Amino acid sequence: MAARLSAGRVRTLLYAVGLVPAAATFAMGVANRLGADPVNVFERTLGLWAIRFLILSLCVTPLRELAGINLLRYRRALGLLAFWYALFHVTAYVGLDQGFDGAVLLADITRRPFVILGMVAFLIVSVLAATSNAWSIRRLGRRWGAVHRMVYLAGLCAAVHFILSFKVLRVEPLLYAVVMAVLLLYRLLPGAVRRRRLAQR
Amino acid sequence: VPPGLLRPAPARAAPLTARSGGQSTEGLTPTPFQDVTHYNNFYEFGLEKTDPAERSGGFHPRPWTVRVDGLVAHPRTYDIDALLARPLQERLYRMRCVEAWSMVIPWIGFPLAELLKEVEPLGSAKYVAFESVVRPSEMPGQSGVLPVLDWPYVEGLRLDEALHPLTILAVGLYGQTLPNQNGAPIRLVVPWKYGFKGAKSVVRIRLTDSRPPTSWNLRAPDEYGFYANVNPEVDHPRWSQATERPIGVRGGFFGAARKPTLPFNGYGEQVAALYAGMNLRRDF
After folding, report:
1. pLDDT, tens digit, for every residue of B158-168?
2. ∠B275-B278-B279 over CA atoms, to 5°?
3. In this complex, which of B148, B253, B256 lies closest to A30 when CB atoms are compared?
């Protein structure tokens, strides 16, 4: 069954399924079913999914190198989903939560490391999303890879931002940070170790 | 089965009668009962807002005593039933959480000053320390994986803050005894301070001559001060305190815009004099 689906169809499906949490949470918010503090829940849910898709996009390379599973053709979709969720998350924060209050937003973005880390991650994934098209890949040439390695910094910032979003250390953001750390540290392994599996195939 | 071998069942809400104390804040619409009792920070029961309501069913708020001692002439142990039998007042107060959300709660209780005057603080008493209960078997949050706070939860006030007529010990809300998740059977309410100052399930009140340690201040001194007066001018390091999200407002998703946070949570007229001459940025 899966074999008969073209890569293009799987990608379309991925976008459709990937956006379900956003749509569902939004619908619940409109129906006033997100509890006592709906805007906060909405904002957090969107941020969480941004991190989840960022992690999934970072899994593509190790899966290919260690397990021989090639999902490269879906990596851009996963990265773009991370960007869309980050954009929704920031929009919810700026609009729904802070009501476009310029003074508060400026203070947040210039003074608070918690917000600055989130913003750095958002700016990076925005640049990556904007340069994820074929034209940019051609245009940037060899520099494209260097630009897109900024995703590692985005992952680091996002993981710390998530930890700081709670008053105390909590298990969930720490687990995400551990997964993120493993995925980033993997990139530091010598090429020979990483590509052994590829060479065997 | 001999009755003594059975633990009393968790207290069910019992109706409480209270007169209007004349100290209620005029013109406020109370936050719905459902939200007041199901959106709580009470880390003894877990970190999620829904945990206290879901995980406090096994907590026994009876029998209960509150010990009042330290630098007083007549240390006393109060039984909760005797405290409930006092003349009680209803106090509709604003409640501002340090996390930038807020509620309006119809508390039932009595001024802390009543109790303090009965035990007669000595001239050397300058502060009042509050201690919450430690019962890991009934409070699952007290035995979590990660260190959250050191138990017991401790809080403190300056003696003049504790004697202020707005400071109450609450034993109920919405016309009934305090639900477990709201700090049964007795808790502190100081409406011009961030909610975390309001120690829940209090077992001991001690008068001291030096400033007592307080739980959140011990945890992160740069984020949570001893005074913790609601102050829109002094931000939490991670978020602004200039505005707040009112909880449980109809149409909360698009409808409940943030509203400005008031200095001293709107109680400045009554309490600002307590802090005359102080630098409230430094003593936050």
Report:
1. 999 999 999 99
2. 130
3. B253
pLDDT single digits (tens) A147-176: 999 999 999 999 999 999 999 999 999 999
CB B187 within 8 A of CB B202: yes
* Cβ separation A112–B248 shorter than 8 A: no
The values of phi and psi at residue A121, to 5°, are -60, -45
Check: CB of residue B228 under 8 Å from CB of residue B98. Answer: yes
Residues B212-259: tens digit of each pLDDT:
999 999 999 999 999 999 999 999 999 999 999 999 887 668 866 789
- The answer to whether A162 and A44 have CB atoms below 8 angstroms apart is no
Contact residues, chain B to chain A, C-beta under 8 Å: 35, 38-39, 43, 47, 49-50, 99, 101, 145-149, 219-220, 223, 235, 237-240, 242-243, 245, 247-248, 251-254, 256-258
For residue A192, the enclosing domain spans 2-200
Instruction: Calculate how close chain A gets to B280, using CA atoms only, in Å.
Output: 20
B64 residue type, one letter:
W
Among A38, A107, A112, whose Cβ lies nearest the Cβ of B253? A38
Mean pLDDT per 10-residue interval, chain B, length 284 residues = 45 78 87 96 96 96 97 98 96 97 97 98 98 97 88 98 98 97 98 98 98 97 97 94 90 78 98 96 94
**Domains present along chain B, CATH in parentheses:** 10-275 (3.90.420.10)
> Do A164 and B258 count as a contact with CB atoms less than 8 A apart?
no
Using CA coordinates, name the residue in chain A closest to B232: A104
For B202-217, give one letter per residue: b (16+ CB within 10 A) or e. Answer: bbbbbbbeeebebbbb
Q: Does A150 touch chain B (CB under 8 A)?
A: no
Residues of chain A contacting B247 with CB distance shorter than 8 Å = 36-37
**Using one digit for the tens of pLDDT, what is the confidence trace for A100-122?**
989 889 999 999 999 999 999 99
Domain count, chain A: 1
Nearest-5° Cα angle at A52, A23 to A121: 100
Q: How far is CA B74 from CA A133, B68, B119, B121, B144, in A?
A: 79, 9, 5, 8, 38
Q: How many CB pairs under 8 A join A and B?
A: 82
Q: Which value does ipTM take for this structure? A: 0.87
Most A CBs within 10 A among B240, B243, B247, hence the mutation to make, goes to B240
CB contact under 8 A, B47 and A166: yes
Under an 8 A CB cutoff, do B243 and A104 touch? yes
- Residues whose CB falls within 8 Å of the CB of residue A170, separated by 6 or more in sequence, listed in order: A163, B47, B146
How far, in Å, CA of B187 to CA of B195, rounded?
Answer: 11
